[in-house]
Design brief:
By secondary structure, the protein is mainly alpha-helical. The protein has seven helices and three strands.
């Protein structure tokens, strides 16, 4: 799951953080960027603007996610073949490059799945917002940050709704945030 083929973070730096994912995973879960059937919808939507070859689609996926999602040929080309088999795209080879184009059936599929496509690209935009902080230094603090959030959520949601307890948790988290931001000012 954390290998290079379509993983959130090449090299597995995210592995220590709550099972390898980020908080904007599909359906609000932690994990892989694309859910079942979503990569095909993403590819269809990128072909809506005109014909492209597989490498262009791979690079566009990476760009749209701010570099967080790195698609591999092993993820893209089988999906494109499946779309072609389903009659949603056609392919043509010119100058040694195979380009893919959307068919009328592909356009109809995009219309039927417009809300899902919108959610995919919203998630990609959110993922891109995290990209500047996802280096080695960021990986060093992922696990402790996740542990703090897990403890806060666990304590806040146990038992009956205790507004005093929730207020105290918020106070602790706000204080920690301000202390961490203070470190940036002293650097």
């Amino acid at each position: 799951m954390y290998g290079r083929c379509g993983s959130w973070w090449r090299g597995g730096f995210a592995t220590p953080f709550m099972g390898g994912g980020f908080p904007w995973g599909r359906g609000g879960r932690w994990g892989r960027f694309f859910g079942p059937g979503e990569i095909r919808l993403a590819l269809l939507s990128m072909l809506e603007g005109g014909s492209k070859h597989g490498y262009e689609l791979m690079k566009e996926l990476e760009t749209k996610s701010g570099g967080i999602y790195k698609a591999s040929a092993g993820a893209i080309y089988p999906a494109l073949q499946q779309l072609e088999d389903e009659g949603l795209v056609t392919s043509d080879t010119a100058a040694g490059k195979r380009t893919y184009s959307l068919t009328e059936a592909g356009k109809a599929e995009l219309q039927r799945e417009a809300e899902t496509v919108k959610k995919i690209w919203q998630r990609a935009e959110q993922a891109g917002d995290w990209a500047p902080w996802m280096g080695m230094e960021g990986a060093e603090v992922m696990r402790p940050a996740a542990e703090v959030m897990k403890a806060a959520l666990k304590t806040a949601t146990r038992g009956s709704h205790d507004s005093a307890k929730i207020a105290k948790i918020r106070e602790i988290l706000e204080r920690a945030k301000h202390e961490i931001e203070g470190l940036e000012k002293t650097a």
